[in-house]
Design a protein that fits this description.
Chain lengths: 340, 203
Amino acid sequence: MSPFIQLKGVSKSYSSKKGHRINALRHVNLSVEKGEICGVIGLSGAGKSTLLRCLATLEKPSLGQILFDGEEISSYSQKQLLKVRQEIGLIFQHFHLFSSRTVEENIAYPMEICEVPKEEQKRRIAHLLPLVGLEDKKGAYPAQLSGGQKQRVGIARALANNPKLLLCDEGTSALDPKTTVEILSLIQDLQKKLGFTVILITHEMEVVKQICHQVAVLDQGELVETGPLSEVFFSPSHPVTKQFVHKTIHEIPTNLLSGKGKVVHFHFKGESADAPIITQMAKKFGVDANILLGWIDSLQTITIGNLIVELTGESSMIEEALRFVQTKQIKVEELTLDRK
Amino acid sequence: MTLASAFFALLAGLPLGILLFITAKGQFKQSPKTYRILSAIVNVGRSFPFAILIIALIPFTRFIVGTSLGTSASIVPLAIAGAFYMARMVETSLFSVEKGVVEAAIVIGSSPRQIIRKVLLLEALPSLIFQTTVAVVNLVGYTAMAGLVGGGGLGAVAVQYGYQRFNRTIMFWTIVLLILLVQGLQWIGDSWANHLLKKRGLS
């Protein structure tokens, strides 16, 4: 079965005012399955917005193809795109609701564009309002709503025509942490109920952790790493991914290092997180472990633990201890740190 | 007379202003060439001193109305000057609509016509009303000038009877009427726009 959304060798460049060429996207290849929630993460300037705008058909890629349910939409005319756009819903960081329309009327807008009969419009609005928790606000104007409420309207409006794809352009970046969690839960809920595919872009790993099935990491226009959430979290390979996934190295209290031992990062996944390896290492191999830093990531259905320790003891025993640890399905990563 | 010329000015100026806006850089029908040409026309139109415009348009006025004197005749230059003025005001108002909102409309699959009718004009409506009010008040001022060169209406009365015949009473009363007219128009425009803003929770 071919993926629902496919980007093949997508590149996008602009000429800046000074005449330089800016390569916003370089040879991006990405596949998203139907019903999947894919998070694209990257720093500011990585090309996330450009990628989203190409997916939303607001821009055409300079090179490459975008396939939407098998159709190559990157070569469509404006007229053909009108039809495709009616299958895509988009929510924005700054909501972009119609200030001249009430909540109800905002949700009705996409249906008016598609010439849905008034009766059907009313029915769908009555169905969507409770789904996003805004029944009592249907006659309010956007300026009278809070940020979280505005985004709920945004979501309802995006879903008004039963789209196959929901795109989220930093949809929670302008919201406080509590509201962010609420909105993401809402999207997750609605996705389960209605079955659409989601592609969201963000610079916040917390967002990805909460609801994404797949992660794609963008760095300077290139897709440097993709994969299922748990895999990317458990074994990030690219430095940028590591930056997002791990706490940054300089958070390790280097003043606690004796300087004589080996600093190791243990990655635990799921069941192995229960294994008492520290005491086992001490008992079996006489290796002392000084715990420098530890944290746990709960990713929807799986737990990932991280422990950064300094191991002291005879070097041959340390090697054996590490081999032993690896047999327990624990990933071992050696770190080089300077003592400050 | 003021109302009639305002009506025609709006009729011509609104589409012109919309066209200016959508062909501007960064907007959904951008076309630098078209924009430059339209912009140049509007600029030239607005730089014409009104008195000279009236005279320059006499042949055209005669062609449309049959005469170059009187109330109906004044409407032609007034409407044209008003149209150029309105075009710029409309363009400015439309620029005040958040670009993201227009993009939201595009992404939803709106055609250009739908974007103009359902989004741009409605979103910018309070601003458009404020601008139109200013334009109409200006027009009242221009009608007095029209009165100087053979037009009709209150301005002409003020000029012909009041000024040229030194009839102080008439001059006084026409001025009072003009002031009332301006105040009235301003009040209508402001009330309507403010009502909209309040309703939308924006004031």
